[in-house]
Amino acid sequence: MAKENPGFEVVAGTEVEPKPAPVDNGVAIAMLTVALKALSQRALTAATDLFSLLTIASAFWLWWSIPSPNDRQLIGLSLYGLMILAINVIVRRK
């Protein structure tokens, strides 16, 4: 017969869970701040490109919507196109 080893016994409740080491979130917050700043700058650049696209699309839509333009409508479309061009140049210079 097998004998039990009397030198070992199971004691309940003596296990100690290790405490996690404190985490320094300063570096993670700094990285997140830099990433959000870069994202906001890219969004601003995309909004300026979207502005240019919308203004040029409006000039094209006006040109397309007039089936047989007379001379006054052509002058008006030309002035509108020049105004759109000037606005886009001003927006790009800022």
Give the topology, please.
Elements: H1 26-65, H2 71-93
Helix pairs in contact: 1-2
| Low-pLDDT ranges | none
Largest sheet: none
How many runs of DSSP E, i.e. beta strands? Answer: 0
Q: Could you state the order of secondary-structure elements as H and E?
A: HH
Strand content: under 5%
Quickly count the helices. Answer: 2
Shape: rod-shaped
Radius of gyration, taken over Cα atoms and rounded to an integer in Å: 36 Å
Mean pLDDT: 84
Distance between the termini: 94 Å
Oligomer: single chain
Report the helical percentage: 55-70%
Structural class: mainly alpha
Report what the structure shows.
The chain is an all-alpha fold. The chain has a domain at 45-93. Helices cover 67% and strands 0% of the residues. The radius of gyration is 36 Å and the shape is rod-shaped. The model has no long low-confidence stretch (mean pLDDT 84).
